[in-house]
């Protein structure tokens, strides 16, 4: 069985809107800045607004019963967050925290649902986002049961490199710097592995000349090679 790999990144929510729809949303919301480590929304809070990330990266985490935070996903420029709680009429299911300085457009819940009523084609876009995120969650669970740590990490880094390349072009040598500044602990939480497993896997990928690393910085040197390594099995 193949290791975890999210479906090919699709354009973010904002990129999929036409100019008139963007103008309508801008008129309905207000901009807000979020410094690094600042929560955009909290798990368990009431759902009174949605946020569109205009710039920066954030992580989505969920707290377990024993108090551990598990990384579920990252969100970046153009992504819509907190919409499922608003549309489902329930409390937030996760916390979203800024990994880098984030600029967001905050739209009150009533104005967002009113926007969707006026632009019914956007409902399909939101529904498609739900489905993709559920699929990604299923693949993550499958990978935890079926693949080794180095392959899971390689697959995750491949996905993050492809996502990052949508927002910043590759370097002249073809390398891609991963946008979300994730720590080894955060990567381990996301791929269901210990920090030590991530450190060993990163060392192995460096030795294969597939990546370069720095503090909270990973650059994919050979994307096709990393993708192939992620597919290897025992």
Q: How far from one another are the termini? A: 11 Å
Give me the count of strands.
11
Mean pLDDT: 88
Topology as a string of helices (H) and strands (E): HHEEEEEEHEEHHHEHHEEH
Strand content: 15-25%
Shape: globular
Structural class: alpha+beta
Strand order of the largest sheet: 1-8-3-6
Strand count, sense and closure of the main sheet? 4 strands, antiparallel
Q: Radius of gyration in whole Å, from Cα?
A: 18 Å
Unreliably modeled segments? 1-8
Summed up, the helix count is 9
Helix content: 40-55%
Describe the model.
The protein is an alpha+beta fold and 234 residues long. The chain contains 9 helices and 11 strands. The protein has helices at residues 13-16, 19-28, 83-88, 109-118, 120-146, 149-164, 184-190, 195-207, 223-231, and strands at residues 30-34, 39-41, 49-55, 58-63, 69-75, 80-81, 95-98, 102-108, 176-177, 211-214, 217-220. The strands form 3 sheets. The chain has a 4-stranded antiparallel beta sheet. It is globular, with a radius of gyration of 18 Å. The model is unreliable at 1-8 (pLDDT under 50).
